Amino acid sequence: xxxxxxxxxxxxxxxxxxxxxxxxxxxxxxxxxxxxxxxxxxxxxxxxxxxxxxxxxxxxxxxxxxxxxxxxxxxxxxxxxxxxxxxxxxxxxxxxxxxxxxxxxxxxxxxxxxxxxxxxxxxxxxxxxxxxxxxxxxxxxxxxxxxxxxxxxxxxxxxxxx
Length: 162
Known about the structure:
By secondary structure, the protein is of the alpha+beta class.
C-alpha cells in the first residue's frame, strides 16, 4: 500500500553532555541578565514624558554622568530597564550618535557579568576589543566596560558587574 512506499526513519536521540568538551575551557566569569537597553534621545524631557505620562512607567530623575558625557534617565520595566541618554557637552559620544541619527535610537545593550575583570581578560584573549583600558563607574555606581560594536555584530555592548 501507500505506507509501504514511504520510508519511516526512527527519531534520532541526542544527549547533551553535562561537562563542556575538552577543547573549550570553562569561563572564569558568568554572563548574567539583560540590565538595560539604552536609547539616545534628542529631547530628554519629551522622552521622559512619553514613558511616564503616556505609557505610565516609573521614571527616574535625570542624572548627569560627566565621566561618560551623558545625562541618563532610567525607565523601570517589569523585567529590565530602558536607559534614556542625552548628550552632556559637545564631546559626548551621544552628541555624535545624534548627529548621525537625528531622531535618536537604540544606542547599546547592557548585560550583567559576575566578574568584570575576569571577563575583560578573557575577552582580550579572544580578541574582542574593549573601548577602555579600565572599567569606569556606570550609572548604577558599578564597574562597566563597553565592547566594540564591530566585534559584536554591530551592537555596542556594555558589560556591568552585578
